[in-house]
Amino acid sequence: MSMTDPIADMLTRIRNATAIRHDRTDIPASQMKLELAKIFRQEGFIRAFKVLEEGPQGLIRIYLKYAEDGEPVIHGMRRVSTPGRRVYSNVEDLPKVRNGLGVAVVSTNRGVLTDEQARGLRVGGEVLCEIW
Questions:
Q1: Rg of the chain over CA atoms, in angstroms?
Q2: What is this structure's pTM?
Q3: What is the mean pLDDT of residues 18-33?
């Protein structure tokens, strides 16, 4: 069965796993999801991730991160651009998520970047998601 929005599926799997305090979650692999996982790791929202060669597509195993009191590091995430409604932004209009406490992930012609990286390179693009 084909999926219409694999990025929204990834975000939902991570959201559901943190809600029930799982240590990890598995997601069907793709290049875009791998880039998102790299950004989540780089920004400190997840502990680590690993690509597993299982099945025809492979899996990305994401190890979730929690504070010492057991509170999830990820407080929320939201899909911005959907297949039915694409959201593009130039560099001046890139969103600030929670006054800088969160991160917007942007797909640019220079690759998948955070909003801060895109501002630094002076490029805009499709706003994929926000995480805080």
A1: 15
A2: 0.92
A3: 96
